[in-house]
Amino acid sequence: MKTVLVVEDDAAIAELMRGILEDEGYHVLAASDGLAALEQLRRQRCDLVIADLMMPVMDGRDLRRALEATPAYRAIPVVLMTAASQITAEDRRLFSAVLQKPFDLDDVLALAARLVA
Amino acid sequence: MAPHDASHAPETLLASVLASSLDGIMAFRTLRAADGAIVDFEWLLVNPRAEQIIGRPSAEMIGRRLLVEMPGNRDAGLFDLYVDVVESGHPAHHTFHYDAEGVRAWFQITAVPLGDGFAVTFRDITAQKEAEEMRRAREAAEEAITLRDQFLNTASHELKTPLTALLGHTQLLARRLGRAGTLDERDARTMEHIVQQSQRLNRLVATMLDVARLQNGKLPLTTAPCSLQDVVARAVGELQTVLTEHPLELLLADEPLLVSGDEQRLCEALSNLLLNAARYSPADAPIRVELLRAGDSARLAVSDKGMGIPASALPHVFSRFYRAPNIDANNGVSGMGVGLYLAWEIVTRHGGQLLVASEEGRGSVFTIELPLQ
User: Fold this and answer.
1) What was the pLDDT predicted at B65?
2) Chain A partners of B198 at a C-beta cutoff of 8 Å?
């Protein structure tokens, strides 16, 4: 079973992501900020990280940089979730994919399937 | 130079220094009342630079009284400062704005006690002060823009987060009920309404944020080689649930038409034209999207057979918040008057043009013209 770590501070969206992914047979871990995500990764292996951009403590970009700086995590694909209407070139370079809020369920699933394959 | 050059005599040197100083220099004698209280000062010395700054010859100052000739010294607080210097025996520095007797400038002065009186050197720092004020004003304006920009980003996040949850959970629910076979047709339609209206709300939020960003002068474009066929496909795809009442005719050039542009923004511009075509034409009236090459440009036209725009309104259709006068007569067509404005801004920021041709009662054609890559 593939494991996806959802990093999102908004509980309704975290639960939505869990629902979408679990319905399709993924194992879902959740963290409410970047630092909590790093904690989770120390305890459990994961195949994909989907992280929100704006979060307290450690945001999506800082989490991505932290993962990139750690050899054990460098290969894990990271998807950025954002409500910003403008995606910077830097974000496109930094992340495996960008998921713009609001998103379509099928887009989330297609992205997950492609990145954990 | 001869060792006993007359120009080296102390008095001559002093006179040269005074004459060539870039600072105004003046000396005063104290005038006292019978009880010893200081009532005024009398000019003893005025150098050429001081004459120049004050704008009158020394002959009109030497031997005369400061407060009589230039009463503005009292209002500027200078008289009190001079009295302090004389009475305390300590020098004083001061920066002030003088606006009286035809002198209007910022000054920096140093007054030092001298016998029963004082000497003052002063420098016109108006240019410096103005530059500083301009810099301060520019910084304040830049800060205001940054703050508004941050606010818009936060607003975008705050508005779209609940929309994302709303749309996502509705879709998830519809999917689960569909799988369980417990979603009947009526409930499926209800769900569809929730999804469509949430999507509509999302478009409104995005449009309003974009308009606010334009106000702020910041609608950044992320440009890359961009296929207009892809732009059409994306816009039509995103709006397929909205355009159901209108047969769509797509006439797209076979050759790939590439422009240097922001695909998302161009898609937004086209979406606004498509939404307008749908909104202002009767159900079942076709909408045609035509993409072709015209020399070095690509032409992307959206035609409808709707109510059209009166000739008098045509020059204004791309103005922010403008709505053509025939809209009210056709009651019930909602809109904020920003869609065409936004489309126009996006297209012109791409170095292109947005053109309109319309006949009232017959329909409209909006054409995006963009330079090909």
Assistant:
1) 96
2) 102
